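Hello support,

Our group uses your service weekly, and this is the first time we've seen a run hang past the timeout. The protein is MerR family transcriptional regulator. I'm not sure whether the cause is the sequence or the server load. Input pasted verbatim:
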Amino acid sequence: MREVTIGEAARESGVKVTTIRFYEGRGLLPAPPRSDGGQRLYGADDIARLRFIRHARDLGFDMAALADLLDLAGHPDAPCDNADRLARDRLVDVRRRIDALRALESELERMITACQHDRVARCAVIESLADHAHCGGPHARLD
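Update from on-call engineer: The timeout came from a worker crash unrelated to the input. Re-ran successfully.
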């Protein structure tokens, strides 16, 4: 079995070294064995798990969902209802964020269109930012 250092595991998985250590600390990746010199050594299963984690994070799964998905992946004969539920929950969240982005887009377009491009004293963008009552409708902050 081929084992690689944390740097090589990072290159092969696309996950930064510091993030690998973070995942180990959170229990998402088991603590690897160490070489005689004390270096962490990762095998193919560890790299596959890191790729799984990276892909799930790229899709926006939070840490709790990720832990559940990793647990499910470790039980290949189990029903996939929970994985489906986690993916559906993520889709609902994505759609909510898309709706919020569309509302933000509309508000920004309205502000720009209302601006007469004259002076800051009569600028619709500045007025809207200074007083929420000038906004055309509800919009949420996205972090």
